[in-house]
């Protein structure tokens, strides 16, 4: 089992600053926040990290289009992401930005370590190689085959030139056997098992060395050993997990990096986290055993979310309709964590009313109402009939969907118990047996509700807190509805 005393570092990917936060990034970030809140509630030391990836050609392009310089552009974008996550009640310890001075310093340190590194086959980890591709003069960048339309740059309608440039490459191939072994032996854990299988599949397909620098991208971190080139994507973005906790400035980062590390992400960047990143860590002499948790993608009513289809659900729209707690609940209960999910506002509405307004909300107000009316000033919480231990275990195994199922089983059970026992009928009878029965039932119900409040707190911090506060009050008062029915 896990050692609770080991500090826990929880990360989300840093989000690329050229776009706006969408439901997918909200989902990843909420999931990471649920785990962080769960462990914090158990008094474990947790550091949660999220942020923005602010370098690269696409950001420079987006800034140019907006008519501002890249730094002003990313300053604005970082604010947008920060505000969006705060709006979802995500309590991160640090929001890291890859243009921050300590990150730049940390990446330089990382790159220098990489330059000095020898692979297990005693070869330099970094070598000069040739990068080839289609270069558009107008765009001033390489375009991928996919981006070309009938062999032309779609923006400039001109045929790109086939150019080669000298880049630095990372000798990933020399590290593959070690990483594959770590995954097979579960020293490098990947959740869920489908994501683990997918990763093992990459090894069969073959994984190539990758280029870590570009000559023609100015908006980036210059390589400390060759200032004509800038660091390319992975060696700038991935090290944020280290620099975010102080890498490159003494040994402080080890408090976190030598503890337990959990990386959350969507499956599209699984390969880079499960193969590239551990190899880079091995090269710079950092330990790699850690946990990767990858979730799937969302469609809306069976279709891919896209602006042109007009079916994009924005986090703020969901919040406006279902509240912050409601949105967090609806997203994490939408599909088993790790699988692809299909969303619809209609289903959200039904689920919100059924599970929150009727289910949890109704249980909380009925229970506190009866405690207020029938047991004035003499409430002591009984033993909860059903502890929610299994929900906790599911959270710790990153199975948020099943954790919620477990909690909702108990909510349904408690609501049914009230209907069956009919405490209001017992209250009418004045005999001792009925009164004792009433008291026992309500104090157990109150204890059960408190258990439920604790269990939902990582998912729905506000609702959890409000229920807890009401049950801890000297004399219990009925709480106003937690979830207003939505229409
Ligand atoms: Zn072009």
Which SSEs are present, and which pair or pack?
Blueprint: E1 8-16, H1 23-41, E2 46-53, H2 57-66, H3 70-87, E3 94-97, H4 101-116, E4 126-136, E5 141-143, E6 161-170, H5 176-184, E7 189-191, H6 193-205, E8 210-211, E9 213-214, E10 222-223, E11 226-231, H7 234-237, H8 240-243, H9 254-257, E12 260-266, H10 270-283, E13 291-295, E14 298-300, E15 303-304, H11 315-332, E16 341-343, H12 345-374, H13 389-396, H14 400-421, H15 423-428, H16 432-456, H17 461-472
Parallel strand pairs: 1-2, 1-12, 2-3, 7-13, 12-13, 14-16
Antiparallel strand pairs: 4-5, 4-6, 6-8, 9-11, 10-11, 14-15
Helix pairs in contact: 1-11, 2-3, 11-12, 12-14, 12-16, 13-14, 14-16, 16-17
The chain binds zinc ion.
Shape: elongated
Characterize the biggest β-sheet. 6 strands, parallel
- How many domains comprise the coordinates? 2
Q: Low-confidence stretches at least 5 residues in length (pLDDT < 50)?
A: none
CATH superfamily of the largest domain: HUPs
CATH topology annotation of the largest domain: Rossmann fold
Please give the alpha-carbon distance between the first and last residues: 45 Å
Rg to the nearest angstrom? 26 Å
Percent in helix: 40-55%
Major β-sheet strand ordering: 3-2-1-12-13-7
**Helical region count?**
17
> For this structure, what is the CATH class of the largest domain?
Alpha Beta
- Distinct small-molecule ligands in the complex: zinc ion
Mean pLDDT: 93
